[in-house]
Amino acid sequence: MRRKFIVGNWKMNTSRASAIELAKVVAAGVGSSGARVAVCPPAVYLEAVAATLAGSRVELGGQNAYFTNAGAFTGEHSPAMLKDIGCGLVILGHSERRQFFGETDEFVAKKAKLALENGLEPIVCVGETLQERQAGKTFEVLRTQLLGSLQTIEATHLPQVVIAYEPVWAIGTGVNATPEQAQEAHAFLRGLIAEKYGLPLSKSLVILYGGSVKADNAATLFGQPDVDGGLVGGAALDAKGFLQIVAAGA
Ligand code: PGA
After folding, report:
1. Whole-prediction pTM value?
2. CB of 122 closer than 6 angstroms to any ligand 1 atom
3. What is the DSSP code string of the chain?
């Protein structure tokens, strides 16, 4: 039985003070059991949030990391650095990074490999654009992105990998995928994993849905057999709403 996992992706939002406050309320509200929970604040606030979360069961993740651990890469940070300040997770290949920063599947695959080598669980994001969906290319795009982004990952590491299906047209738009659309895509992704890594590993793989997850749609999305939780953007910035989403995963 896969445990539900709810991850808040704060993107480039919050101030130091509001990040600490948000983390404090989330930590106080998650209770001692239920869905697995993590938050991913902006990198510059990770340490402050780590201190706030200390002693709570809320996990901490970065939103990105580079594919080497040190060197002359101005502006980047490495998986080793994320690990060093208390992160256990890192989001990789988010569509905003693919779209605005030119990240390719190959680049994401290199980053995922190093993240795993440093003991971080990568949350590898895939998802089609509206144009691709309308052109009937959803499955083709998902296949290319998933297999491309995992090309460096051995079966032994797969249990530490989380996948997020995030249709680009649903991110930040208020238009979530229907539970049926999400289920169809998740089942397809799980099938690809079964082909590449075998059935048992595909059955234990956690696949999150992301794209306009809110308190009022979380329960039906998470109720789908292959939807194992959510990667939550906008709604993760409101502690009360985020906690309701976490509760929907219990
Ligand atoms: P959203 O973002 O919940 O604001 O749509 C999700 C994401 O991009 O991870």
Report:
1. 0.97
2. no
3. -PPPEEEEE-TT---HHHHHHHHHHHHHHS-SSSSEEEEE--GGGHHHHHHHHTTSS-EEEES---SSSSSS-TT---HHHHHHTT--EEEES-HHHHHHH---HHHHHHHHHHHHHTTPEEEEEE---HHHHHTT-HHHHHHHHHHHHTTT--GGGGGG-EEEE--GGGTTTS-PPPHHHHHHHHHHHHHHHHHHH-HHHHHH-EEEEESS--TTTHHHHHTSTT--EEEESGGGGSHHHHHHHHHHT-
